Amino acid sequence: MSILKWIRQIIGDDDSSSTETEHDSLQTQEIFHKWIIINEGGFQIVSEDEVEIKKYWNDIEDVELRADHVILKVKGHPDINIPNTYFEWYNFIQQVPPGFQSFDYQGVQDIMAQLTPCFVCGLISVNHTRCFNCGFDSWEPMNYNLPPREEYYREAQLHYFEPFEGEPLNLSNAAKSGFKTDPKWTCLVSPEDFGN
Ligand SMILES: [Zn+2]
Predict the structure, then answer these.
(1) What spacing in Å lies between the alpha carbon of 160 and ligand 1's midpoint?
(2) pLDDT tens, 28-79?
(3) Chain segment 27-39, per-residue pLDDT in tens
(4) Ligand 1 mean position, distance from CA 132 (Å)
(5) I need a surface site. Which of 4, 152, 163, 184 has the fewest CB within 10 A?
(6) CB neighbours (10 Å) of residue 52?
């Protein structure tokens, strides 16, 4: 599944006034309401159907890093607050060019080092109990509404890896979006599960 289609799906789910989706028991979280497109010399903030912010690094006077958001100081404009619930945030903080006086470049390394493996997508992308790549929450032993652990992760993987519109199946946990691969990850689904 491509990143953008995955996000669109999550955002699409969020249009509903109800959280009772067919995947409700999987703790799918509609966390990515917007995403960051990083490009040559700058970035864009995109919501479902429009580019909301487009900036070049030359426009940015300074950048401040917090544990879950960054604050961009823009010449002659209000600050821009970018929370980690914007998809690609963890990639974005690693792409901030050198030379911003207030930016804590070592703090980026600390934030990345605190992430833990996701048993769904196989990246090192979980902050506390939530994956900031695939959007799934970790299975919780004390949450009796959830299926058993392996069943939970298998169901989540079936959802996450389901190809869209004729795209090839790709059961890979290759590093992406700034997140590293978890070499110990176990894929619980097979091509047969997708009719291949
Ligand atoms: Zn994940």
Answers:
(1) 9
(2) 556 787 999 999 899 999 998 799 999 999 999 999 999 999 999 998 899 9
(3) 455 678 799 999 9
(4) 7
(5) 184
(6) 9
- For residue 97, how far is its CA from the centre of ligand 1 (angstroms)? 27
Strand partners, 12: none
Is residue 130 within 8 A of residue 87, CB to CB? The reply is: no
On the CB side of 91, how many CA atoms lie within 13 Å of its CA? 18
Find out whether 195 and 109 touch, Cβ atoms under 8 Å.
no
Identity at 127, one-letter amino acid code = N
Distance CA 163, CA 196 (A): 11
- Contacting residues for 166 by C-beta, under 8 A, at least 6 apart: none
Please give the model's pTM, rounded to 2 decimal places: 0.84
Ligand 1 centroid to Cα of residue 157, in Å, is 9
If you measure from the C-alpha of residue 76 to the centroid of ligand 1, how many angstroms do you get, rounded to a whole number? 38
Distance from C-alpha of 20 to C-alpha of 26, rounded to nearest angstrom: 11
**Degrees (nearest 5) of the Cα angle 89, 95, 99?**
125
Residues within 5 Å of ion ligand 1 by Cβ? 118, 120-121, 131, 133-134
DSSP tag of 60: E
Report how far residue 176's alpha carbon sits from residue 167's, in angstroms, rounded to the nearest whole number: 18
Contact 90, 112 (CB under 8 A): yes
pLDDT band of 23, cuts 50, 70, 90 = very low
